[in-house]
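Task card 7
Instruction: Convert sequence to structure tokens.
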Amino acid sequence: MRHIITIAKTTMIESVRDRVFIGLLFFLLFLLGFSAYLSTLSLGDTARVIQNSGMAGMALICLLVTILFGAFSLYREEERNELYVLLNRVPRPSYILGRFLGTAMIIIIFSLISGSALFLLTLLFGGVPAFGLAWAVLWNICEFTLLGGVAFLFYALGISFTLNAIMVIGIFIIGHSMTEAVESFIALGRFGSPLHLQSVKIISYLLPNFDLFDFRLEIIHQEPLPLNRVLLALLYWFSYLAALLTFAGASLKNRDL
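Output:
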């Protein structure tokens, strides 16, 4: 346990000191400023425009964080030959878990900064105290820590960084499209292909379903979140993430480095 905490703290400190961290902060400020600018052009509800565009910006930033501070940092450490020395002292599953927790802390930091800034912008420009944005921060953390677990598994399987990044982006897009795809095939009824429908269902079960964390409409309209959906989303996040990290640790343990 001590090894895991040490690796997590080191990962977080190194990430904060990295120039990429500062660059992403400036990019985040640009996205938030652009959200405020869009709200001035809108003829509708200013607060909703800020929240909608701001949450999209939050997702984009955390996607970059997941790839750069999650996946890329692993490959960079391996290229510097630092990994081999470390793995002689630390069990490989502990290394994976420690690195993941450090990356998760960076995702949490960016999510909190984004959520806090969005709250202030909504209050200043829209005149609405959008306390529901706390939910947006939580679901953003769940979604991108889960995506980070996918990136760590691909690394443990020996996939190159470029392919890893492409696959992570692809899974992110697919994970937001599966529910829609299944519903579309069901709507086709007898005109649709049963084989295609079953294939899509199988893929939707195997790949992470990020639609479970999509409460954007409820948050923007300040509606209460259904308790059953909240509990299901949290249980799904914990179970899927635990499975990903377990497989990643086992794969790295069996991998010849």
